[in-house]
Design brief:
Helices cover 15% and strands 31% of the residues. With 601 residues, it is an alpha+beta fold.
């Protein structure tokens, strides 16, 4: 009897430590680069406010067989239809604020084929997902922003006519990540692509291809097969450079090696260079565009390819404000990245969660550095070991998905968490998790506990975590949540002075088109926001270890936190761009600042 495959995904250690730590993420690397059929489109949907669907066995989709039979549900004609990928909140007025369960269903055709595996890959379901195939529960996953998949080969219907059902639930709970309160919209649904992968029985399950530590001309590769098998020949090649290596797997189905390359053009911020990399075995071939670059820290400087780089960043949510819904397509990614690029950035902070692969890959193609983080954001249950395990799994899944993306330079473990012994242990465990999986990138976290100390006359703070990080980041809303204790040009900073410091958030709210006093926060005016930005940039210029800035935020975004009936109406108005795509006056301030930094490079 055959059983569903469990993929043991190889996640590599640091370039400076032995490889070979396995993480059971169950993911096939580079899912979009495999033979697949899209399962996107219109899905039938049943909202389940009182969570009765399991009791009623909705997932079996039974239909009346006799005169006395009836069922109080149906995925048939007349059923609600929702777009996948997409959130349910923006597709139905009745579901705008809905938090709970929605059952999704769609038929698809697939039969068992000798020597082939069929795997359903979910790029993201918010927040909890339970998956059923042909009336049988086959998988579950928690977390909106990382992928999961299940091998369905041995569960396909003999005639090839299958029914896939997904129970999606976005209810906020204290043990979730993020927890019960967070400053963005709680979109629910199958919010990212669903793919039916078609793979050889023995295929490439995972690989990592990157520069060897300390080198600019030596590429190292590690490849893992889906099933342990010794003696399988594996080729890793870069055709454009007419170079590569032939390897042989060990008893675990893993092959490792390195090779020198000539004329390798390194990927740089603003000057991307990507190569088609081919990984080939006798039964499988995978091609992926991969870039090569070095990354490090020298004192208070961040180095790309050995050269200091000031991070000209901005954050955005995975949201299209004009549609008031999740960004989920290539076209959506282009809108977000295009606007960030126009601002003059060389980095995007994908706050506060790993965003979809369309955004990540497009940023890399455009030469934009990425900061990725998991949504450990205030209110997390730091005393709960189960919550820590979830955070570690999310971190592992994020790294597993994007470890071949050279644009990703920063793994962030937390945002705006308050110091305490419990929080320190929690965050330190996440840092240890990252370093055990991939210390070839820089580890960071964003803090909001820096304040003005009258005794020393400086902006400073006390926290145990910055000492454990490669790069320290601070969210500081001077002029908005905190009044100026003295003039901006008199402000002196002394926080993590021996490390690179990024101002990861600053700004204030303004309603596009509203004008008023530039010295009155309650004017909610573009004029006040513009002056606030100028004052903050003046202060930042005097931070000796400043390595980058990242205003909050690119676009206005939806948030139930925001109650003001005139100026907010359920929107966080800190955007440099309004909810209809109009640029505010502060956008020009940041654009001019970034252009000046670019010229100084």
């Amino acid at each position: 009897m055959k059983f569903p495959r469990i993929i043991i995904l190889q996640v590599l250690l640091s370039l400076f430590a032995p490889s070979g730590v396995l993480a059971s993420t169950g993911l096939t690397v580079n899912a979009y680069g495999r033979d697949h059929v899209s399962l996107n489109g219109k899905w039938s949907a049943i909202p389940d406010l009182y969570d009765q669907g399991r009791r009623m066995e909705i997932y079996k989709n039974r239909t009346p067989q006799g005169k006395t039979d009836f069922y109080e549900y149906s995925f048939g004609p007349g059923c609600m239809r929702l777009n996948v990928p997409g959130d349910w909140n923006s597709q139905s007025p009745e579901l705008k604020y809905y938090e709970g369960t929605v059952w999704y269903a769609r038929p698809f055709h697939a039969k068992q084929v000798a020597g082939r595996r069929r795997v359903i890959h979910f790029a993201g379901v918010s927040y909890r997902a339970t998956v059923y195939l042909n009336g049988r529960e086959i998988a579950s996953h928690e977390g909106s922003f990382t992928p999961f998949e299940v091998d369905v080969t041995d569960m396909l219907a003999p005639d090839g006519e299958n029914l896939l059902v997904v129970e999606a639930n976005n209810r906020r709970t204290s043990d979730a990540i993020p927890a019960e309160a967070f400053d963005w919209w709680n979109y629910g649904g199958i919010t990212r692509d669903v793919l039916l992968l078609d793979l050889p029985e023995q295929h490439v399950a995972d690989y990592t291809v990157r520069l060897a530590g300390g080198s600019t001309d030596t590429v190292e590769a590690e490849v893992l097969l889906s099933q342990p098998e010794e003696g399988v020949e594996v080729e890793v090649a870069i055709p454009a450079l007419k170079n590569g290596i032939r390897l042989t797997t060990d008893a675990g189905g893993r092959a490792t090696g390195s090779f020198r390359v000539k004329n390798l053009k390194l990927w740089e911020p603003g000057a991307p260079s990507l190569y088609d990399v081919v990984v080939r075995t006798p039964s499988d071939t995978v091609t992926e565009r991969i870039g090569f670059r070095t990354l490090g820290v020298d004192g208070t400087k961040i180095l790309f390819n050995g050269k200091p780089e000031f991070m000209r960043s901005v954050s955005f949510h995975e949201e299209i404000p004009q549609r008031m819904g999740r960004a989920c397509s290539v076209q959506d990614a282009e809108q977000l990245i295009n606007e960030a690029e126009a601002l003059g950035v060389n980095m995007v902070r994908t706050a506060h969660y790993p965003q979809n692969e369309h955004i990540v890959r497009l940023a890399e193609e455009r030469g934009i550095v990425l900061w990725e983080e998991i949504p450990v954001w205030q209110g997390i249950s730091f005393t709960d070991s189960a919550t820590l395990a979830k955070a570690q799994r999310m971190m592992t899944e994020m790294i597993a998905r994007d470890k071949n993306r050279c644009a990703v330079a920063f793994w962030s473990v937390a945002n705006e968490t308050r110091p305490s012994p419990e929080r320190d242990r929690f965050v330190k465990s996440l840092i240890d998790t990252v370093r055990s999986l991939d210390s070839s990138r820089l580890v960071t976290a964003a803090f909001d506990n820096v304040g003005y100390d009258k005794a020393s006359g400086t902006f400073t703070g006390s926290d145990n975590i910055p000492a454990l990080l490669d790069v320290v980041a601070v969210n500081k809303y001077m002029g908005w949540y905190a009044p100026w204790p003295l003039a901006p040009d008199k402000c002196i900073w002394n926080f993590a002075p021996d490390k690179p410091l990024i101002i990861s958030e600053f700004g204030g709210e303004a309603l596009y088109g509203q004008h008023g006093s530039s010295d009155t926060a309650s004017s909610w005016s573009e004029d006040y926001q513009e002056k606030l930005y100028l004052d903050n940039l003046d202060m930042f210029s005097r931070i000796p270890n400043l390595a980058g800035v990242s205003p909050w935020v690119l676009y206005d975004f939806r948030s139930p936190f925001r109650f003001h009936p005139v100026n907010q109406e359920g929107w966080n108005r800190k955007g440099l761009v309004g909810d209809r795509g109009d640029r505010k006056k502060a956008w020009n301030v940041m654009h001019d600042f970034y252009m000046s930094k670019k010229r100084q490079k």
